[in-house]
Amino acid sequence: MSDTPEDHGAQRRRIEEERTRSHEMMRYIILVNAEFALEELPADHPLQETLEEIRKATRRSADLTRQLLTFARKQTVEPRVLERQGYRVLQAATPILALALAARRHEPIDLLLTDVIMPGMNGRELADRLRETRPGLRCLYMSGYTADIIAHRGVLDEGVSFLPKPFTWRELADKVRRVLDA
């Protein structure tokens, strides 16, 4: 498997398409069940009004969900935000490049800040590989997925340092400080 930006872009698009399809499928299931119940219940049934609200909310949620996922997916860390806090930031565009960058450096790296889900290697795998030569390395994971969904998929263990996207730069700086001070 090659490690080109085009390959990573294609993998990322496939992951996002899969996530979008799963959200759409859940909305579809909710919508179909609400519409089925609306058809089966008498017009004066007390649940009619509630089911109608569910149907409307399900339809409205499609656009909102896409906007939130797009924002979370595209949020990245600007090095200068952390540099202003006095940190020296090393950046790598892919997990493979992060491994190569770390291998070339002899000075300590105190913290790995990484996305959880990435093409080719997830954040936990990256942290594990880096800890082979840097056993004290702390790690802060970030993701647009919620922590419980990520833990359920087995990508992260409970109790790890996690920052959900979207986040503010202040939240990022505070979380980095707490992880380093732990």
List the helices and strands and how they pair.
Blueprint: H1 5-40, H2 47-74, H3 79-83, H4 95-104, E1 111-115, H5 123-131, E2 138-143, H6 147-152, E3 161-164, H7 169-181
Parallel strand pairs: 1-2, 2-3
Helix pairs in contact: 1-2, 4-5
Quick summary of this structure?
The chain is built from seven helices and three strands. By secondary structure, it is mainly alpha-helical. The chain folds into two domains: 5-74; 79-181, Rossmann fold (3-Layer(aba) Sandwich), CATH 3.40.50.
Report the span from N to C terminus: 38 Å
Secondary-structure element sequence? Answer: HHHHEHEHEH
* Radius of gyration computed on alpha carbons: 21 Å
Record field, number of beta strands? 3
What number of domains?
2
Q: Strand count, sense and closure of the main sheet?
A: 3 strands, parallel
β-strand amount: 5-15%
**Parts with pLDDT < 50 across at least 5 consecutive residues:** 65-73
CATH architecture of the largest domain: 3-Layer(aba) Sandwich
What integer is the average pLDDT?
77
CATH class identity of the largest domain: Alpha Beta
Secondary structure class reads: mainly alpha
Name the shape in a single word. elongated
Q: State the strand order across the main sheet.
A: 1-2-3
- The CATH superfamily of the largest domain is identified as Response regulator
Q: What is the helix content?
A: 55-70%
Looking at the structure, the CATH topology of the largest domain is Rossmann fold
Number of helices: 7
